Every structure is written in structure tokens, then in C-alpha cells.
Amino acid sequence: MSLSASSVTAASAAWVWIPDFAEVAQTDEYTIVRFPDYFHQPLQVLAFQPVGPVAGAVTAVLDRAREYGKPELQWHLLLGSPPGLAEELAARGATVRVTLDVLARELHAGAPDLPAPAVDVTLRWATDAATARDNEAVAVAIFGGSPPPAERVAQIAADNADNVPAGKGGTVTAYLGGAPVGAGGLNIVDGVARLWGGGVSESARGQGVYRALLNARLEYAAAHGATMALVKARTDTSAPILLRAGFAAYGQESVYQVPL
């Protein structure tokens, strides 16, 4: 069974992560999230659907964002973003920080049979503080930011301990020779497995570690009733691996760096 472009677009648009520990400024037209400072980019615009002219709505968002006192923000341009938004941001000095391929694969028939990695990879769900701490350390090394405080790591582990056995998802860490080298997460929402945060340390790439992380998450998703796997993948790193694993591309999204 193939996926329709409309179903993937709708699932992608519905994917907005707002954790309970973040500060949110939200109206009918936009969602601004102020993450803790240990995030690689604390201030982000995650949703934007203006009812009037784009230019005026962008001005309103930037005026509100400046109240946080940050020098810049990240603005996510989604598949359903209004026409002219990219040009409006560029005119205000914004630049593209990263381009993401929106990739999806159906899971009605279960998880795909992916080739085994070339090395002996150990995978652990981050349901304890030590594994959660390893997961966060790998993520910081790959994506930037700084490690979260100990109490936040403990909360991540506690959440995983509840959510993983309940079929809601969680984070998984990959180890080579006892050292953490990869990380990946997923959440299952309305039958969609949202795969996020997948990455491997530079020294361990090219050996199938990312594929092992992908396989573990797809098997988990299929076992817990997900019928679609959805990823917003970096075009130059994870996207080629996912395409080889049977995912299909449904468009691109961009993350703009906007000066304030």
C-alpha cells in the first residue's frame, strides 16, 4: 500500500514538538517556542499560518520574538507554509541553515528487512539515567548545544521508562565497544512513527550504525501499530540512507536562521 502525498503532508504539518519544559508564545497564526539555553537554538518558530498578508504577519512574529532578548531565531518552513514566506525572510537577512527532505514509508506490512551493520552494534533504549546521559552526549556532539542538566536527563529516562513499554516511543542509543556512538528517537502519534534525532558520531560512520538505529525504531513502530514512518532528514547525511531503506521523498522543508 502506497502513501498519498496529502496524507504525508498532513502528517508532516501535524508534527510540532512543544515540550512541557519550554516557554510558548502561541496565537492562531504562529507558534514561537523558547527552549532552554542548552538547546542548539533556544528560540524557534515552529508554525506559521497567517490569515492576512505574509509581510505584516512576519513583522508581528519578529516583534514578539525580540521580547526574548535573543540575537536570532530559527524559522521552520514546512510543506504547507504560505507562498512568499521564504522570500520575505530572505529580504530580512535570513539564511537557510539546513534543508530537510520529508521522507515517508508505509508500515502496513511491517518493518523492512534491512542489511545488518558491518560491526557489532549494541542498542539500548534510554530508560535509565546512564543510557539517557549517553544519548544526550552523542546528540550534542552531532547536532550542537550543550548537555542538559542532571534533573532533565533523569526526567528523560523516567519518561522513556513509561513510554517505551507503552508503545509511545522513546530514544535509543547505539554503542560500539561499550562507547556511545549513535542516537535516535521516535514518537508514535495517530499511527505515525515520527523518527527524529537520528545521528552517528563522525568516527563511527559508514559501518551501518545509523541503519541499526533505523531498524530498531522501525521494528518498534511496526510492532506497536504504526502504519507510516515519517522522517525529516538532512539531505546530505541521513536522507540517502533512508531512501535506500525504501523511504520515498514527498518534498523539502527548510530551517532559516533569522537575525533579530
Summarize the helices and strands and which ones pair or pack:
Layout: H1 5-13, E1 23-26, E2 30-34, E3 43-48, H2 54-66, E4 72-77, H3 85-91, E5 95-106, E6 122-125, H4 129-143, H5 150-166, E7 169-176, E8 179-189, E9 192-200, H6 209-223, E10 228-234, H7 238-244, E11 248-259
Parallel strand pairs: 3-4, 9-10
Antiparallel strand pairs: 1-2, 2-3, 4-11, 5-10, 5-11, 6-7, 7-8, 8-9
Helix pairs in contact: 4-5
Structural description of this entry:
By secondary structure, the chain is of the alpha+beta class. The protein has 2 domains: 5-101; 109-226, Aminopeptidase (3-Layer(aba) Sandwich), CATH 3.40.630.30. It contains 7 helices and 11 strands. Strands 1-2-3-4-11-5-10-9-8-7-6 form an 11-stranded mixed sheet, with helices on both faces. A hairpin with a 2-residue loop joins strand 7 (169-176) and strand 8. The radius of gyration is 18 Å and the shape is globular. The mean pLDDT is 94.
Defining traits:
260 residues, alpha+beta, Aminopeptidase, 2 domains, 11-stranded mixed beta sheet, 7 helices, 11 strands, 32% helix, 32% strand, globular
